[in-house]
Amino acid sequence: METVSYFGSYLADNKVWDEMYDQNSEIREQYKRVYNYLSSESVEDLNKKEELAKKLFMSQGITFTVYNSGEGIEKIFPFDIIPRIITSSEWTFIEGGIKQRLKALNLFLKDVYGNQFIIKDGIVPIDMIYSCPHFIREMSMVQVPHDIYVHIAGIDLIRDSDGTFYVLEDNLRTPSGVSYMLENREITKRLFPDLLPQCKVRGVMDYPNILHKNLLSLSPRAVSNPTVVLLSPGMYNSAYFEHTTLARLMGVELVEGRDLVVQNHHVYMRTTRGLKQVDVIYRRVDDEYLDPLVFNPSSMLGVAGIMSAYRKGNVSIINAIGNGVADDKAVYAYVPEMIRYYLNEEPILKNVPTYQLRNPEEKEYVFENINTMVIKKTNESGGYGMLMGFASSEEEIDNYKKEILKDTRQFIAQPTINLSAAPCYLQGKLSPRRVDLRPYALCGPGGIEIVPGGLTRVALREGSLVVNSSQGGGSKDTWVLA
């Protein structure tokens, strides 16, 4: 037994919620089987598992692309072999909170592109909506099938030092990462085939089937076998591996903009047998590139005329166009009020306290306390455009303040949250690293389904709080116990 080599050197920080150790430095109940298993494994055994995982990722082409200085660098997605474990009761809480949140966000999107009662009643300021670059005026009064705007959501959760779960952000446009969740589980099955059933880990592999079922149910035509396609920007997109994986698992065609054509306000796919009408498009192309006749005229990624087909109800587009107004980081601050307004309920999941820098008093407070703040651009993603006050130099802070003052609407600030830590196997030892969690929710005519798990992202650099893969982060399998 080599318990010392793994656990004796594990340095849990008492200021951080540790997923494996409780406040009394005892192993949490949900980790005990994994603890016992690891205690009986040699360093050589775990090194072999780690090496096998890398080979499997390499052989299956599980990659992502980092864009740096205008160049695309393709990398194998870093994977940690030690799972992140969530109890059944924790998951029930998370699941209820996400479902509540998505109900309110769907109602908000229907309202903001319709009668705008939430604006008229003074819950959300009108200029907050109209100044959002992702508010698509062309979506006003468009009838969306089943009134569902958010069909696929990735809700980012973090855990503070007292164990409280917070929603960090809502990803409602073209959320990515689900293929890594699926591949992480497949690889974990290879590494720990006996441990998963012993721990009674709930499955995540139904995700493609649930998604496909939902897509079929959204067809505007009453046909027995609707045509569903996945629209990708192409092989140079950072998430292209995910596009190919999901299309293959669902058994649908993977297409690019050049493969589709619009005639008489209907969308058709070019095939060797001629044109075939398309009913449902799961698009992974951003709004601004989707239709060059309406949005960006220079776009080569979209389909000319697709917006007219959509407005007339001849094709379903998943997710709906214009969802970005609901996951704008400045609008995020109003989600708890949306829940109270539309559902007459108190939010189950908390927001991280958020300061609007467009507000002079809040901006002044943030500038005075900037060393304890994380400042973000409201419409950036991937960990780009952030200022981590505690880790920035005076010069970096001064330069960032100048950027803020150019357009305060485009920035929000949040206090630095001590993300929880989970054990990671690094260089033959277990070490705590900060983690977040992105569960994936699927909304269809039959309701909201969330596969029990999600993508746990890991800040692999010691001391880092940034989990994004583009910033040196990795991932691990997420086990939800039955």
From TrEMBL:
SUPFAM superfamilies: Glutathione synthetase ATP-binding domain-like. Residues 83-459 form the Circularly permuted ATP-grasp type domain. InterPro entries: ATP-dep_Glu-Cys_Ligase-2 (IPR051680), CP_ATPgrasp_2 (IPR025841), UCP005522 (IPR016450). It comes from the Bacteria. Coiled coil: none annotated. It holds the Pfam family CP_ATPgrasp_2. This is Circularly permuted type 2 ATP-grasp protein. It comes from Hufsiella arboris.
